[in-house]
Write a structure and sequence with these properties.
The longest helix has 37 residues, at 369-405. The strands form 2 sheets. A 7-stranded mixed β-sheet has the order 1-7-6-5-4-2-3, with helices on both faces. A 4-stranded antiparallel β-sheet has the order 8-9-11-10. It is 43% helix and 12% strand. The chain is of the alpha/beta class. Helix 7 (200-208) links the parallel strand 2 (189-194) and strand 3 (215-218). The chain has helices spanning 2-7, 19-39, 69-80, 102-114, 125-141, 162-181, 200-208, 230-242, 265-275, 312-315, 330-337, 347-350, 369-405, 433-449, 477-496, and strands at 155-159, 189-194, 215-218, 246-253, 278-282, 307-310, 323-327, 409-411, 419-424, 456-460, 463-469.
Length: 498
């Protein structure tokens, strides 16, 4: 009874959606976001809060009565922004970018505004058909082989992330192989990658039912720029064959996460073809650069692969989330991922004349991502997208030049795109690799702790590297120059204390 009395205590009238009230509140939110971006350069790039900070700031229970949008936005400013690491700051150089644009933002508003699940054609024909058109557009921008496009018998789909793309293709590869050798042989299946491949392949293999002992992360070396060589790949396959195992899947990478290395696609695909291995090419970050003719050669050999993916939400100004996946044989995905309950049956699907994207992915429900990428492509055009990407590469080249002029530092791996991997040179650390690693780690932490810029790190072949990745939409030359000045000054202070 007490709860019933409490529920009846609010006497106002409120609707979940009312056009004029939406207009008023939306204008307030847009102004808030605009002001955030005007000030984002002034915030500490890495959040300075301690774990559990937010629990101490918000009420223990949800509000019983409605609260005005003005109060909510005040709390966002007061409580949420301090806990954000500002990925859109022009001084953010960590990980890989996940940049944004006016068009990407407005496209996301359209996606959210329509709020459609789009699981099959009949649920929203425009969502399905626009997606099929846009992935062909982008495939043509990348000069993908025609058999990856709908126009050539293949096809593309938009997932949320590369993790989903790898998992979906691995499931298709697994089922295709098990149909040949029998379901009872699943424990013999082997997945291949390099020790530089994104960790998502290991997660996908575990979900797919591949035993952990059958995941081969093949060692790479600095002499080969940490790329997976065809020779090492072949040797590993032959060893597995001798053990009676069944080679299944290779994930080759264009722009690895740690070292931004490019695996030799053509040679790897030739080896894989000999052994009937499904090849997936992951170009999550670097794929965006390959719309520029001068970088397209990094995809040479992709014609020998079975599937290819990259993330427009990383470096193509589209905003999270958007991953494009292409496959030569869509029926492989459909056979593995198709579901046809009675409540989803319809004439369009049964006619086999339409695409039902629910059968191209793990989940049933899906977002209208294509409208967002469509906005980006139409608003800027391919020519301007290329200019944006080239400007980031040019800034990274500038930073690399700074590093190479200072004898205290060295570039660890060749820079192909907009990410520089560097460290303190062992030559200024008594010739000791471990000392160089330890000091590089201390240097990076002091830089990030300052809040002035943010970089990330990795360990490649036992070498601790600092990674500066240019790609934030608001980054300009002056921010890269400032980043180098900070790195240089922090290094001087570090050496002064030892």
């Amino acid at each position: 009874m007490a709860n019933q009395i409490a529920d009846n205590s609010y006497t106002g009238t409120i609707k979940p959606f009312e056009p004029e009230e939406f207009r008023r509140q939306a204008n307030l939110v847009i102004e808030f976001i605009i002001n955030y971006y005007k000030k984002v350069e002034n915030y500490p790039v890495r959040s300075q809060v301690e774990p559990g900070y937010l629990k101490r700031r918000v009420p223990v229970s949800a509000p019983h009565d409605p609260e005005p949008i003005e109060d909510i936005l005040n709390d966002v400013h007061k409580d949420i922004i301090p806990g954000i690491t500002h990925w859109q700051s022009p001084n953010f150089f960590g990980y890989f970018p996940c940049n944004f644009s006016t068009a990407g933002f407005l496209g996301e508003m359209m996606c959210t505004g329509f709020n459609i699940p789009g699981f099959d054609w009949i649920s929203s024909p425009a969502a399905t058909e626009l997606e099929s058109i846009v992935v062909d557009w982008v495939g043509e921008m990348l000069q993908l082989p025609n058999d990856f496009l709908f126009s050539g018998g293949g096809g593309g789909v938009m997932h949320g992330t590369t993790c989903e793309a790898i998992l979906s293709t691995m499931v298709a590869a697994r089922d295709k192989m098990l149909k040949k050798i029998g379901d009872d042989k699943i424990n013999r299946l082997v997945v291949y990658c390099s020790d530089q491949t994104h960790v998502s392949i290991k997660k996908a293999a575990q979900i797919t039912g591949i035993h952990r002992r059958n995941i081969r992360a093949i060692e790479t070396v600095r002499a080969n720029a940490f790329a997976l060589t065809a020779e090492a790949f072949r040797e590993t396959i032959e060893s597995d064959n001798e053990l009676g195992l069944v080679p299944l899947f290779l994930c080759a990478t264009v722009g690895t996460t740690s070292s931004v290395t490019v695996d030799p696609l053509r040679q790897l695909c030739e080896v894989a073809k000999e052994f009937g291995i499904w090849v997936h090419v992951d170009a999550a970050y670097a794929g965006s650069a390959c719309i520029c003719p001068e970088y397209r050669h990094f995809l040479d050999g992709v014609e020998g692969s079975d599937s290819f993916s990259f993330n427009p939400h990383k470096w193509l100004f589209t905003g999270l989330d958007c991953c494009c996946l292409w496959v030569k044989d869509p029926t492989s995905l459909i056979k593995s991922l198709s579901t046809n309950p009675e409540y989803l049956r319809n004439k369009a699907s049964e006619s086999k004349q339409v695409v039902d994207y629910k059968d191209w992915q793990i989940t049933l429900t899906r977002r209208f991502r294509s409208v967002k990428l469509w906005f980006v492509l139409r608003s800027y055009g391919v020519a301007n997208l290329r200019k944006f990407i080239r400007s980031h590469v040019k800034m990274a080249h500038k930073f690399q030049g700074f590093v190479e002029m200072d004898k205290r530092f060295e570039v660890v791996v060749p820079r192909h795109f907009s990410t520089v991997c560097f460290r303190l040179s062992p030559l200024v650390c008594g010739g000791e690799e471990q000392v160089a690693n330890d000091l590089s780690k201390k240097l990076l932490e002091s830089i990030n702790q300052s809040g002035k810029i943010l970089m990330s790190h990795s360990v490649i072949g036992g070498i601790y590297v600092m990674r500066l990745s240019v790609g934030a939409t608001l980054t300009e030359d002056r921010h890269v120059s400032f980043a180098w000045k900070l790195v240089k000054n922090q290094a001087t202070a570090l050496f002064f204390t030892i």
